[in-house]
Amino acid sequence: MPAGAYLYGRLGPQTQLWLSTAVFLVGVTTTVTAVSMTMLIAGLAIRGLAAGLLAGLGLGVLSGIYEEPVDRERAFGLFALMWVVPSLIGPLINSAILLSVGWRPAMAWPAILLLIGRALVSRSLRRVVLDRPDAPPVLAGMPWFLVIAAGLVVAQVTVVVGSPLVLAAALVAVAAVLVVAFRRAVSSTTPARRRTQSGGWALALTCAGYFGVGAIVPLIAVVIIDPSGVLAAALVALGPLAWALLSAGRVGPRLSTSSARIIAAAGFPLAAGLAAAGALQAEEGVAGAVLLGAAVLVAGAAMGVIYPRIMTLAFVGFRESSSITRAHGGVVLSLSEDVGTAVGATVLAGLGGVLVTTGAEAVAILLGAVALGLGAFWAMSSRGAVWEADDAPGEATVRDRTQ
């Protein structure tokens, strides 16, 4: 991810786009021709590297094109919609190809869509006038990004083991990632830009709540209510649908910042609480399913309102310099999204996967604790710089401190 912002400023978005595409195609080729699981995993890892090389491009370009915050928020809402909708349709198409043709074509066909999409993006980029930095951009924070990756791997691996002592170690690893490495990665990538850094923390908290609830709800449905997985599949779709509808309906831009923040601060804890109630009522069947459905709908609605707002606010008053571009701000937001998603899924789905075998009560206690934690974290985040008024002093007067 840090390399993405570097490529954006050093070589330009066009080169960044096609370099990432080339690496992605190498990954696709590796997975499609894999003769072992190791080779398959290596191909997936290469595709992940390709995604990291593209970090910052989309958010950086959009934040620069749309100067008015309302227009920028609408663009970011559509930006989210563009991948929420494929995430719903893609699994259906992929399952059909997998069952009718085989796994290798299922791994290969997305590359065709990607090439078409990248060609369209490249054509659009040629119409946009983008400022290039006078000096080479900073490749900052790489060691902290690696620490984050290592910490999340440790947390996810230890969760699989399942013993109470190891689970405690997993939580410590997650906390260490957030408190130390994440903070340093964000501050070194966008030094002296308080609003962007605060936006990164807010977005990580948002994604942890949304994706955490979205991960544990289908788990409860499969283990307790419907082992066939049909109900779980329906529940998985409800959250993104609510998110997509609110983004497409431009609901967020019509709300004030304080209203959007209050909806998120209440929505995510409420979603976790509804999921806890759903776990306790899961054995009742319909009642549990309704509560679980309400949980993902509330989380999706909160996400549809707050997700584009945070990304919009994070770029308000953003100062580009000779070495720090808007792509660096995009990298911070992309990192925050990934860290929040991984932490939310690890804590809720990982711990929930262990606790659900002991009974619904244990899962409900976990979700209740998460609801309280989300409420407390949102209360603390209300003081963050990302929520300050657009004309708040300090953002444009702080001296650059590049590292």
From TrEMBL:
<feature type="transmembrane region" description="Helical">
    <location>
        <begin position="362"/>
        <end position="380"/>
    </location>
</feature>
<protein>
    <recommendedName>
        <fullName>Major facilitator superfamily (MFS) profile domain-containing protein</fullName>
    </recommendedName>
</protein>
<dbReference type="InterPro" id="IPR036259">
    <property type="entry name" value="MFS_trans_sf"/>
</dbReference>
<feature type="transmembrane region" description="Helical">
    <location>
        <begin position="137"/>
        <end position="159"/>
    </location>
</feature>
<feature type="transmembrane region" description="Helical">
    <location>
        <begin position="17"/>
        <end position="42"/>
    </location>
</feature>
<feature type="transmembrane region" description="Helical">
    <location>
        <begin position="230"/>
        <end position="248"/>
    </location>
</feature>
<keyword id="KW-0812">Transmembrane</keyword>
<dbReference type="InterPro" id="IPR020846">
    <property type="entry name" value="MFS_dom"/>
</dbReference>
<feature type="transmembrane region" description="Helical">
    <location>
        <begin position="48"/>
        <end position="66"/>
    </location>
</feature>
<feature type="transmembrane region" description="Helical">
    <location>
        <begin position="78"/>
        <end position="101"/>
    </location>
</feature>
<dbReference type="GO" id="GO:0022857">
    <property type="term" value="F:transmembrane transporter activity"/>
</dbReference>
<feature type="transmembrane region" description="Helical">
    <location>
        <begin position="107"/>
        <end position="125"/>
    </location>
</feature>
<feature type="transmembrane region" description="Helical">
    <location>
        <begin position="260"/>
        <end position="280"/>
    </location>
</feature>
<keyword id="KW-0472">Membrane</keyword>
<feature type="domain" description="Major facilitator superfamily (MFS) profile">
    <location>
        <begin position="1"/>
        <end position="385"/>
    </location>
</feature>
<feature type="transmembrane region" description="Helical">
    <location>
        <begin position="165"/>
        <end position="182"/>
    </location>
</feature>
<feature type="transmembrane region" description="Helical">
    <location>
        <begin position="331"/>
        <end position="356"/>
    </location>
</feature>
<feature type="transmembrane region" description="Helical">
    <location>
        <begin position="286"/>
        <end position="310"/>
    </location>
</feature>
<dbReference type="GO" id="GO:0005886">
    <property type="term" value="C:plasma membrane"/>
</dbReference>
<feature type="transmembrane region" description="Helical">
    <location>
        <begin position="202"/>
        <end position="224"/>
    </location>
</feature>
<keyword id="KW-1133">Transmembrane helix</keyword>
